[in-house]
Amino acid sequence: MEPEQVEGMAMMYESPEDIELYPALLAERALPGAALGPTLACLMASQLLRWRRADRFWYENTVHPGAFTEEQLLEIRKATLSRIICDHGEEVHEIQPNAFLLAGHG
Known about the structure:
Strand content: under 5%
Structural class: mainly alpha
Radius of gyration: 21 Å
Distance between the termini: 30 Å
Mean pLDDT: 91
Protein name: Peroxidase
InterPro entries: Haem_peroxidase_animal
Number of helices: 5
Keywords: Glycoprotein, Oxidoreductase, Peroxidase
Helix content: 40-55%
GO molecular function: peroxidase activity
Number of strands: 0
């Protein structure tokens, strides 16, 4: 937390144990290269993993009839967004390997 945030929290709460989770998460210093602090990043990752495991339509869940085989999953995992854009985009002549990053950043 930044010193100003600590001062603000000290004025609003009698004790650090009284601070509510949401304001504390928002006040937490972001991880390098991220918009979230470590606690919120951990909570979100944990929740997203649980949602994925519980989603019967998630393509990697193999416990339902008609699920992809391991061989099919290996082929699916070879696909990249950059490859899909190159294959199906109009007038796309080149693209960086990771379409999720800004050009020149990876």
